[in-house]
Batch of 2 targets.
Target 1
Amino acid sequence: MDKGNLEARLAEVRERMAAAAQSAGRPVEQVRLVAASKTVAPSVMAEIAALGVTCFGENRVEEAEVKLPAVRELLGESAFRACCWCLIGHLQSRKAGRALEVFDQLHTVDSLHLAERLNRLAANRASPVPILLEVNTSGEATKFGLSAAGWPDDRQEAAALLTTVESILALPHLQVRGLMTVGPLVADPELARPAFRRLRFLRDALAERWPEHTWLELSMGMSDDYTVAIEEGSTMVRLGRALFGPRG
Ligand SMILES: *Cc1c(COP(=O)(O)O)cnc(C)c1O
């Protein structure tokens, strides 16, 4: 990739992030840029890291297992360690152990079954594994996540959600830090706003119910809708195409 292009795209993203934060009266430091690097070559990942991006999101365990050692080689150990490596794609329970080997944070914990398995596998760790709970805020059948499209009006859905969250919070080797969602696929980003707002409302409700836990993070917003997500309280935008250009 042309390095000038990468630098220009990053500058534009940073500018738009700042403008969106400002229009919502939020400090831009509250919003972390996560480079969604699926299909992106390790050399390009190292380039964007050299430009100051320190948080990466990968979708697949297998892909990360291959690419991260290559990025480590390019960046050197300390710069590699300074980066945060997040899983942002769906995680199958049978790959939970491998995911824990590769990633610092898991953004897509979407069932008690998966959480229990991760908790067992993390039992020997010095500190709990940071996770986000993935929530389906749009009701789209193709989306993963705990169902919350009807939050807060759908009482049955809400009861199921709260039961699951309570059980996950009780797992000692996981540390829930907040929520993640993938916005609905819509032509106009404005149409994704209700889903982002729902995630924030849900987070606020969970924080009120379980104040002893951390609920800081809202991982929401992608290339087409991140400014709207920031206006609705996003703390982590996951950007692929806006940084790297169209995926091949
Ligand atoms: C691919 C992906 C992104 C980034 O998507 P873009 O539209 O390229 O910004 C963010 N989050 C998840 C979960 C993804 O799979």
Target 2
Amino acid sequence: MIPYGRQDISDADIEAVIKVLKSDFLTQGPKVPEFEARLAERTGARHAIAVNSATSALHIAVAALGLGPGDLLWTSPITFVASANCGRFVGADVDFVDIDPDTFNMCPKALAAKLDAAKAAGRLPKVIVPVHMGGQSTPTREIAELVHPLGIRIVEDASHALGGSYLGQPVGACPYSDITIFSFHPVKIITTAEGGAALTNDSALAEKMGRLRSHGITRDPDLMTHASDGPWYYQQLELGWNYRMTELHAALGSSQIERLEAFVDRRNALADRYDTLLAGMPLDLPGRQEATRSAFHLYVIRLKDHDKARHRDVFEKLRSAGIGVNLHYIPVHLQPYYQALGFSPGNFPIAENYYQRAISIPLYQGLSDTDQDEIVVAITKALSP
Ligand SMILES: *Cc1c(COP(=O)(O)O)cnc(C)c1O
């Protein structure tokens, strides 16, 4: 089976992890700050907080922004459940904004309409989480122009988009958002096995997220409520969690990030090649948004709307042909957990139509041209009546 995604581990990556195992620190040593410095340097953000998953990064991000019970978070329905769940972690309500059918990202027009309705109803979101679906940047500037005048904060879920760029800046630089989060799960652009990070230009948010990742504890005398009791002393200022990244994971991340450019170049070359090889077929190919360079975490093909009854059949034919296709994503509002909160089929028609037609085909840095040709042959066969 050719998988839809796969990590790329070099001898240098393995060496970096072994070195940590032989060192003094397995956790809370020098490797995590080193990885954070590399993330900040690569993206241009002032601060990076590394954690044990992107889900944890989303949690500390919304908690640092003060999201809580009675508040509202909006995200895209075409994403991994974690983008929405972070709102629920802190007791907030969650709602969705339908997608742009061409880029699969949150649609600014749908957002503008929903904001008008929310203003009229007197219930605006406190935080919005646009998702860089498949690695292509969400139109953060347009979103910021709509939400900033209303005091709404932005957390970019860029789990798919490390190494991509938007309006001439790397994704993660946060020029239009409060916080950007990344995932380092093995199918993502670079991996730390499990891992994630939250990036920001706001030093108060960085400090707060740094504390929340480690129990809400500080050793900084300036932040304490009274003078230190002695050299052993620390204070818990608020309720946090243990979301720390280990030294092993951080060393792997620092080694991987050295090849980020090469990874994203290869993913783009493969995506361009898919564009050419699939051009004549009865499919809708992923749209490219101007002024962005996708990191191409995913390459999503869609059957034509009139073919959607064949969706499952085509998907199963590809799996039987040894092509590890996948589907990103089941619209989050259709999950039983969210339906129990009041959502139902028909709420976000563009996302639901996307779900009836989408198939993620293999795309990762180690995919060879020969494998890709084999995938294209299998797609041709699966599509033939
Ligand atoms: C993978 C992913 C996450 C969660 O990442 P973890 O590191 O596995 O917690 C969140 N959002 C999106 C869009 C993702 O693809």
